[in-house]
Amino acid sequence: MREQIFVKPAAPHPIVVTPRIALEEIEQAAWIDVRGDLQDPGFNQRIAAAFGRPFAIEANRFVQLGERTILWLGPDELLIVAPYAERLALIEALETGLDGVHAAVTDVTGNRVRWRLSGAGARDFLAGACSIDFHPRSFQTGQCVQTLFARSSATILQTAADPVFELHLRRSFNRHLQGWALQAAADLE
Prior knowledge:
Blueprint: E1 13-17, E2 22-26, E3 29-36, H1 41-51, E4 62-65, E5 68-74, E6 77-83, H2 87-97, E7 103-107, E8 112-118, H3 122-127, E9 144-149, E10 152-160, E11 164-170, H4 174-188
Antiparallel strand pairs: 1-2, 2-8, 3-6, 3-7, 4-5, 5-6, 8-11, 9-10, 10-11
């Protein structure tokens, strides 16, 4: 029997709203880290079987399969983000599908929070927190990156061209980062 970790799913709530930036913490999700040989077609087929359909993924990109998102984090690492209610069933499907293959499936749900950032000032806001170039010619919809965000580890995805970004942050830094975000947004106005 798998030990269950309870993380209360948070309702979306605003962190910062200005004329140029909308930043909100969004609902809790399940985060499942999968390690293995991404160059092995058999490994990828087994993961696809757990999702019920094939997918292709490139470096520093993500794909959406319904309500699930699969992010490429490294040559041997994927991160799967899914609705919280699917967490245990998805872990079981992945573990079963990868049985007998050199792989690791790790539930990292309790470690993370999600923010959604949008608005005309979103790229400027990110530039104040990261060393990544978020200019549209360098970072576009469908891309993801692991970086430091205001000195805390983060994964950032661009989910729409408007621009809209999703930030996955360490839960233990959430309060600190919210304070930083309030000050940074005020500085941009």
